[in-house]
Amino acid sequence: MTSDGKEYIHSLKNFSKNSHTGEFLKNEIIKVIEEVSAEKFCSIVSDHASNVVLAKNLVSTKYPHIFPIRCIAHHINLLSSDIIKLNWATNIITCCKKIVTFFKQSYAGGAILQQEIVENMIKDGGLKKYVITRWTTAYDCTDSIIRCKNALKQILENESQLLNLEIISILRKQNFFRNVKDLRTILLPIKKAIINLEHKSTTLADCFINLVIMATAIKELSQTSNQNFSKECQNVFDKRWKEFNFDYYLLAYFLHPKYRDTGLQINTFRIICEKALSIWKLLGGREKSANELIAQISNYSLKSKPYDFEFVTRIHTVKNWWLMCKQQNNHIQKLALLMASIVPSNASCERYFSILGCLNCSLLQNMLQMHAYYVSNISNEIKHAYKELSDEGFEDAVTKTTFPFDDKIFDENDDELENNQFENNEGENQISNSQNFDSFFNVTDIELRRVLEIEVTVEIPLSTEYTDSSEQDFNIESIINKSLERRESGINNITE
């Protein structure tokens, strides 16, 4: 995946007869890197299986400028899977599925429900099915129940003879619709996160913001009657958070000019500086440029010149905003554009394998390379198609036509999938950080809530040449301590 969102397939290989050790995977990855050229890579993105994590780290040891990034799509899928498996959520989803199945299979019941939908002008149609293999359908199912709430109540009151005893019992349960609504509240940010991750323009900052929105939704749920469920969700979130090496995402969030340090706890600034300097060191930066970088980060945080431009959503992009910030030795600009260029998900890669299925890979390589090329360049290849759509809208349209699946295909194996979904979570218990989410973020921050209503825009990198002959093995702690002292002095002067 290139920084401008284009995908290229290098090759397909059948490793089914090989032992997938970290060393083996590392060697295969390095073969690809060296064939393409190591300078053209900035990250390797994968799931969190222990052998893959080892392979990424071994590659990064040889090529320090290639960062090992955990695929956030897998992280969010594991998180959403844990939430759906909680007893309370499972019971609600089961009841919703029974209601949907009944009205889909009952001719009389389905007809009267459709009549109620038309008469009450309910938007977005009728009841939606939940399919275990497609996570966004959990939200769609609960949302459809809430949208059809009044229609279902009318049928229960006036046409109860059309319903069986089980459906009547579910609809008459105390707080049933309230519980469905609460579950929908949690599922909405999950759905948005999954949809956002399908776009090739998604950045590390976009992904981190989705995690913040999910944490906020869970916190707000504690104010409802389902405090036990809220607590369980918080425990799930904290568990997955501790497994997640978030520092790349946190730095990208900070370097997004719309957000900067909005909502961050005070102690988080040091973590950001440490990560920025560790990356800078890996990129070959020396002590002099590192001191300059930290000074620039401090000025950026304080919105001092040249970082005092307002970020205007839908006009600015991360790239053009940073390109406006002109100065000599613009290290922070180089770092920010690099972070914005990293694609944090391999979901599109896995989509290709889903398209091709389990065919013989020797027959697939050319097909897959052609498919990737045409998807990446389709706007040029088909110049008159979808002119009215944005790039992301066009991408959605292509994806939909690629997957003309019917729900029945998935229904047959739902029971088996419910038992096996996400069982292969190798390495999921590896702890990457020891602190909970609240140690870094204040989700009650008013400014944070305001900016989270605004969509993050994406963009791409620029390289900047700079000569630095100072000490390469510099002390990160020493530089940060000096910078924080200057920063505190600057804040005090502003306050006075």
TrEMBL record:
* Subcellular localization(s) per the UniProt record: Nucleus
UniProt keyword annotations, A-Z: Metal-binding, Nucleus, Zinc, Zinc-finger
Name of this chain's protein: DUF659 domain-containing protein
Which PANTHER family does this UniProt record tie to the protein?
ZINC FINGER BED DOMAIN-CONTAINING PROTEIN 39, ZINC FINGER BED DOMAIN-CONTAINING PROTEIN 4
Record flagged with keyword Lyase:
no
Chief location bin: nucleus
Q: Name one GO cellular component term.
A: nucleus
Q: Specify the DUF659 domain's residue ranges.
A: 4-99
Q: Name one GO molecular function term.
A: zinc ion binding
Does Metal-binding count among this protein's keywords? yes
> Which Pfam families does the annotation name?
DUF659 (PF04937)
